[in-house]
Amino acid sequence: MFCVILHFNSHLHKCMFVAALFMICEGFLVKGPSGPLIVPLGSSVVLPCYVDDPLPLKGLKVIWVRTDANTLVHVFQDYESRPDAQYQDYHDRAHFFTDKIKHGNFSLRLENVRAEDKGFYRCKVYTEQESDETLIQIKSVEHLMVSGSNHPVSAYVGEDITLNCFADSHIPPEEIDEVSWRKTDKNEIIQVLVFEKNKIIPADERYRHRVDFFTAEIPKGNFSLRLKSVRTEDKGVYMCQVFAGNFSANTTAVLEQLGFSVLHIIVLILCIAASGSAAAVCSVVSKTKIIKHN
Ligand SMILES: *[C@@H]1O[C@H](CO)[C@@H](O)[C@H](O)[C@H]1NC(C)=O
Ligand SMILES: *[C@@H]1O[C@H](CO)[C@@H](O)[C@H](O)[C@H]1NC(C)=O
Ligand SMILES: *[C@@H]1O[C@H](CO)[C@@H](O)[C@H](O)[C@H]1NC(C)=O
Ligand SMILES: *[C@@H]1O[C@H](CO)[C@@H](O)[C@H](O)[C@H]1NC(C)=O
């Protein structure tokens, strides 16, 4: 019971109140990832499971179980990992970071992820006194994963910017059929730049000569877009869509409110000032002319 309370408030375990409990319960909290995991097919994934303060190795036992299939994924007991206990599906695919266990890191590395690996995993940690656990979900195993940047990009007019788009590296580049960057506006979809069958296809008039891929990065699956000399009307949402075999995935990048740089403003003021004096000169000249005419 006290242990349960301790799990919800790790500060408690240092307080006198607990010391008075004859140290029956040391209290540790097993932590996992902040949310479900989405993993690329064929990749390696780390299923996090850890405690903040290392636990004594004596009597330590860590059991990883696939809860939906009720199979043993991996076991650490008597100072070592026990692959003999593993369910055959995980032989040579699921590993502890053995040297990290003494630091309280019981994470599991699962290699060559398959579609069937989708599901729930429980990491249960036992000390001589007590136990705690965390549940981890592999929510989906994706054939193709495309990522970008989570933050909007903001820029000044005239600047060069990069919009990120990265296809996971487990797809060989030669299997990527097409990558298209499009600007999706309210009423219109503008083709910004397309990569198809290893060729870069010229963009919409509005973007021509201003956009490009980083060609040296393409073999790495990096299809980030270089947009040069940004204009106010470039503001908006850009989608990078990748097609490989029967699969397609996308990411979006937002180009935010564009401002004018200090330099722009100074130049603008100078222009206004200049045109002001030009106007003055003009009016003087024209008046002079008018006088002459008269
Ligand atoms: C546990 O160790 C693995 C391998 O070094 C590392 O990737 C992971 O970030 C570690 N987790 C924590 C919580 O330190
Ligand atoms: C892709 O390439 C661009 C330009 O070199 C770089 O800024 C970006 O970090 C790269 N993205 C990845 C995921 O490597
Ligand atoms: C794509 O779909 C076709 C027809 O559904 C199928 O025969 C083929 O194996 C699929 N290719 C891949 C790479 O999944
Ligand atoms: C973009 O990807 C999301 C899922 O990440 C999907 O729901 C959406 O339909 C995709 N959009 C296009 C145009 O393919």
TrEMBL record:
Residues spanning the signal sequence: 1-27
Topology of this chain in the membrane: Single-pass type I membrane protein
Location(s) in or outside the cell: Cell membrane
Keyword list, A-Z: Cell membrane, Disulfide bond, Glycoprotein, Immunoglobulin domain, Membrane, Receptor, Signal, Transmembrane, Transmembrane helix
SMART domains assigned: IG, IGv
Protein name from the UniProt record: Ig-like domain-containing protein
GO terms (BP aspect): cell surface receptor signaling pathway; cellular response to lipopolysaccharide; immune response; negative regulation of T cell proliferation; positive regulation of T cell proliferation; T cell costimulation
Ig-like domain location: 42-142, 158-256
